Amino acid sequence: MAKPKGDSALDKICARTQTRIALQREELPLEVLQKDPMYKRKPRDFRRALLAPGPRVIAEVKFASPSKGTIYPGEASADEAVKVAGQYLSAGAAAISVLTEPEFFKGDVQYLRRVREKHPEATLLMKDFFLDAYQMHLARWAGADAILLIVAAVGRRLPVLLETAQDLGLYALVEVHTEDELIAARRAGAVLIGVNCRDLKTLATDLDVARRLAKTHANALTLKGQPTTRPQAVLIAESGMSRRGEIDELAAEGYRGFLVGSSLMQTGRPGEALKALLEGG
Question: What's the CATH code of the domain at 268?
Answer without folding.
Answer: 3.20.20.70
